[in-house]
Every structure is written in C-alpha cells, then in structure tokens.
Amino acid sequence: MPLILFNKPYGVMSQFTSHAQHQSLADYLSLPDIYPAGRLDTDSEGLMLLTDDGRLQHAISHPGNKKEKIYLVQVEGKVEAKKLMQLREPLNLGDFTTRSCKANQIEMPNWLWDRNPPIRTRLQTPTSWLAITLTEGKNRQVRRMTAAVGLPTLRLIRYAIGPFSLLSHPLLPGEWRELDPEEWQADV
User: Would you please indicate which residues are annotated as catalytic (active-site) residues?
Assistant: First the structure.
C-alpha cells in the first residue's frame, strides 16, 4: 500500500478524471488504483496524500480523526488582532459553524515557489500572510473563513497534513514522492 505525497499545482483538479478546462491528477501521476485522501480546490495549491488503501485514506481524511492540516494563506488587507481572534473561534459560515482553529500572521515563507499565473497586485491594497491550522476540511472552508472576517484569500497553499509537510518533504509543484512504509506507518 503506497503513500504518495504530491504537490498539486494551481489549476489542477483533485481527481483523475480528465476535464475539458483543467489538468487533473492523471496529468502528473500514472500509478494504478490510487486515490486522494482529501481534496484541494482547483485554485488551491500544495500537499495532497494519495493511496490505494481505503482504510488509510479514511484514517487520513475523515474529520473524526482530527488530523491537523496547515494552510498558508495570502490575504488581501491588513491583519488585525480582532480578525485573528475571529478566525480562531468557531465561525458561523451560514451552512455550518467551524471548529476552533489556530490562526497566526506570518511572513511570506522564503522557500515558497512563484505561482503560475502570478497573484494580481494592487499598489494601494496591502496583502498579508496567515498560517491556519484546521482539524476539519469543509468545501472552500479557509476561503470562506477569511472572507467572513474581511480578508479575502488571494493564494491558498496546503503546507502540511498531520506529520507530513512540504518542508520535511520538499516538492515543487507537480512533483510527487512515494514514501516507504517505515517512513509513515507509525504516524498515520
């Protein structure tokens, strides 16, 4: 049972089925019978885990297992303490209320790759970076959370899932790596 780490590029769909307008995982991975353990939106980037084992997939992605997922988020606007507190507390997004999470302002990581296409820049509008750690992962949750507190997301990168991160396993967008079972079985 392989465990694959993949750095999903911007604009790639988190599925193997081909799509008329976007690339899919099949454009990067040609391994048989593997499936994503969780998804990323087409306009999000970063770490995905894939496997051929249904129990492992469930252990990684099911919200009841509360695996931490860390997102690096470039937002439009200035981050204020009040907005960070709003992000950390349960936040009513209309159709659901988020769990408490960790949210901190950070500097842009110096190891981060340029996005293709680049993020639009406005000279009069500042941008900031956040690190948001969730133990759940509803559809477009991080984007909805930042928008709800007045900090629209410009760029979203999933940096880590549980013990696996793009810092401990450096991969450029589109690159993947299969981990040996000794590297991950104790952590999942």
Answer: 41
**How crowded is residue 123: how many other Cβ atoms within 10 Å of its Cβ?**
5
Which domains does the chain possess?
Answer: 1-65+163-188 (3.30.70.580), 68-161 (3.30.70.1560)
Per-residue tens of pLDDT for the chain, all 188 residues: 689 999 999 999 999 988 888 999 999 998 888 989 888 999 999 999 999 888 888 888 777 777 899 999 999 999 999 999 999 999 999 999 999 999 999 999 999 999 988 888 777 889 999 999 999 878 899 999 999 999 999 999 999 998 899 999 999 999 999 987 776 665 65
Residue 39's alpha-carbon distances to 44, 78, 150, 158, in angstroms, are: 10, 29, 25, 10
